[in-house]
Specification:
24 helices; mainly alpha; Leucine-rich Repeat Variant; elongated
Amino acid sequence: MAETATETALNIDFSASKSITKERAPEGHESLIADLSSALDPRDRTFAAMSLGYLGDPKVIPALEMAVLTRSENIFVLEAALRSIAQYGPAAAHSHLSVSRIINHDSAIVRLAAVQAIDSFKLEPNVIFSVLSGRFMDPALSVRREVAKIMDELPAENLREILPKAIHLLEIGEGDKRLVAHLMSIIEKAGKESVEGISAVRQRLRDCEPDIRIKAAQALGRMGQSVKVAAIDLYGVVGNPLEEISLRRECAVALRVHRLYDEDFLMDLGRVIEEDILENQPRKINEILFLKREIIELLGDFGPKASKAAPYLREALKSEEPTLIVPAAEALARLEALEVLIDALNSTDILVMQSIADAIKGMVYKMKHSKRARLMALLKLKFAWVKEPHLLDSIMALLRTLEMIEQTERLNNPELFQAPVDFTMPLQA
């Protein structure tokens, strides 16, 4: 057990008593109980209360309960008795009514110990909520934080009643990192679609604590579609190179989860892909690459309406970073930027060609005849010099698919094949 306020205030050295207490005979237990109930010195009563918590004998719980119910008892004795009751956990669950009676005690030390005792009993969620909800806005930070932590573990249906309180605490500027994290989690669980809750969490994207900003971005990613009110804030963080990389990535994840498309920010996303990597630490470099990858996949999720970002994805194909090349090819395919993909096949990089071949595979049926013809010509040129077996197999599979489509169209639309295709002219979409 960590040093408590009681041990500190009364200067009790309790380290040696734990082993001594466990070795006491049953009549020794009676002596401790007698001290707890009748010793004149509060330090003796406190020592007795603390010692009874280490006996491992549930028969002493009623004596501890009596101490808790003594109205005029010293606050340090009360704290020690409550912590000892908590030591017995669910075995002392029947004491929760007695503990509940002092949950509103004037002393924050006692209230905190009472809250922790209630938590140790592992009661039903409804019972925990009914006992602790009144202390959710306790004036003492330590009590508020402990209550929020316990509430955070309850099912969402138990939390809707305190949702307005959680939003209020977040809005008025609650500053403790752990408490704020619990408040955002409660809002996320109990008010996924609450515009007020989302707005309160959204404000924390501008918090002075980096950890709180990251927690806010993560919470927004798990909330409902009303998160669109925070889209401009998420885009603003993602596009700001001065923000923490981890925060920018979490905001990008939130944008991706909710598919928050905004054409005005496409170029900002593209510029993130182009950002220079100035770090020299492997961990930092990986964080930046993962951010760029998240942006590339986000653009791919937007589909053809994000086609303006295709040039940035083309640059990612030239990056020589496997982390970016493969998702960039897939994203270009989802943008249906066939012209960019076909042009990129002129690369001599095996990974780039393989990624493009894999990306195009599912798109050949959507291509116009002119694009298929150009693609076939390029693939045949590549086939003449490529030696890598897996890439050769991919090119062969693509060529067979293209030839099959060509044969089908030749039968159905022979007029398409009467004029030769001019490969020197730019192809229309």
